[in-house]
Automatic annotation (TrEMBL), chain A:
This is Mago nashi protein. It is found in: Nucleus. Keywords: Nucleus. It comes from the Eukaryota. One of its GO terms (biological process) is RNA splicing. Coiled coil: none annotated. GO terms for cellular component: exon-exon junction complex. Its main location: nucleus. Belongs to the mago nashi family. InterPro entries: Mago_nashi, Mago_nashi_sf.
Automatic annotation (TrEMBL), chain B:
Its main location: cytoplasm. Pfam families: RRM_1. This is RRM domain-containing protein. Residues 64-73 have a biased composition (Basic and acidic residues). It comes from Lactuca sativa (Garden lettuce). Residues 47-91, 181-203 are annotated as: Disordered. One of its GO terms (biological process) is RNA splicing. Coiled coil: none annotated. One of its GO terms (cellular component) is cytoplasm. InterPro entries: Nucleotide-bd_a/b_plait_sf (IPR012677), RBD_domain_sf (IPR035979), RNA-bd_8 (IPR008111), RRM_dom (IPR000504), RRM_RBM8 (IPR033744).
């Protein structure tokens, strides 16, 4: 691979955490996952609707999986964005995306994004679109990993 | 310090990095939204002692560094997480019904059949996830494949890693590991310090 040290394939530090949730009549409902620098993937899903269960799973990933996660992040160019002009978290919900990659550390927060319409009408559609798709791609990756390893339906 | 308009396009300047200081972070919270834009550098309120908060000064960006610490993150991510029984040693970890491998470098126009043809010869594929890029609708670039036996998965890795699939070089490796691939809380001593300590089979 031709990427630099801190690029997609680089050996620099990598950490990623995503949270989405809200507090409502079913309590604090949220989904959160994190990729830790030592390879541990943690996944938590708390939904109080219908059944009162908290799913918490963790598993160690190989460096190859972490590297692919890093590539997805790097290709998205999310590290170039800024959440300054994104909708602020509100009563409806909150999203957090925190990434450490090489020498950069982002910690973005915004409201829940219902659809691309919300993205388009925001003050920073380009940046928010990148966030919107990256989050979906990351969720998709994590759900596959968790469901294959534990044979549960993550959501 | 740059003004609010600059913050959009520019990374924060490196000499802001010495604000990685607990007290400063607590004092200057998000009490005034207007002030926030002029205070680009604060220690993460969210990470609070997590793995990410360690290590050397970094260029930081985002509202997450300026918000109060009431997100309850400590409660959410502490406590017991379920995992499959594992001795924590090196090497691949078995998943609940089989062995999972990761294929990367998968061509964006690959079809499930292409993966079936290439990887089916090592054993019956019990599960195949060929996820799509949500924006483009093309293949994202990786596939996760489940075999029932260790030997099948091992053979697929040995045979296909570095091989070619639809004109692209693919890398194939185990997806899950029995333990961490570097020591917890390992500070970066050198940028190359941890690169070769992983238990991975090949690369």
């Amino acid at each position: 691979m031709a990427e630099e040290e801190n690029g997609a394939a680089g050996g620099g530090e990598f950490y990623l955490r995503y949270y989405v949730g809200h507090k409502g009549k079913f309590g604090h409902e949220f989904l959160e996952f994190e990729f830790r620098p030592d390879g541990k993937l943690r996944y938590a899903n708390n939904s109080n609707y219908k059944n009162d269960t908290m799913i918490r799973k963790e598993v160690f990933l190989t460096p190859s999986v972490l590297k692919e996660c890093r590539r997805i992040v790097s290709d998205s160019e999310i590290m170039k964005e800024d959440d300054n002009n994104w909708p602020e978290p509100d009563r409806v919900g909150r999203q957090e995306l925190e990434i450490v990659m090489g020498n950069e550390h982002i910690s973005f927060t915004t409201s829940k994004i219902g659809s691309l319409m919300d993205v388009q009408t925001s003050k920073d559609p380009e940046g928010l679109r990148i966030f919107y798709y990256l989050v979906q791609d990351l969720k998709c990756f994590v759900f596959s990993l968790i469901s294959l390893h534990f044979k549960i339906k993550p959501i | 310090m740059s003004n609010a308009a600059d913050v959009d396009a520019l990374d924060f300047e490196p000499d802001d990095d010495d604000l990685m200081d607990e007290e400063a972070a607590v004092d200057v919270d998000a009490s005034s939204p207007g002030a926030a834009a002029t205070i680009p550098k604060l220690k993460s309120a969210i990470t609070g002692g997590s793995a990410a908060a360690a290590a050397a000064p970094k260029k930081t960006k985002g509202r997450g560094f300026r918000e109060e610490t009431d997100t309850g993150r400590g409660n959410r991510m502490s406590g017991r997480f379920d995992s499959l029984d594992s001795d924590g040693g090196p090497g691949p970890e078995r998943s609940i019904e089989g062995w999972i491998i990761l294929v990367t470098g998968v061509h964006e126009e690959a079809q499930e059949d292409d993966l079936q043809n290439a990887f089916g010869e090592f054993g019956e594929i019990k599960n195949l996830h060929l996820n799509l890029d949500r924006r483009t609708g093309f293949v994202k670039g990786y596939a996760l494949i489940e075999y029932e036996s260790f030997e099948e998965a091992e053979k697929a890795i040995a045979s296909m890693d570095g091989g070619e699939l639809l004109t692209q070089t693919v890398n194939v490796d185990w997806a899950f590991s029995r333990g961490p691939f570097r020591r917890k809380n390992n500070r970066r001593r050198s940028p190359h310090g941890h690169r070769s300590r992983s238990p991975r089979r090949r690369f």
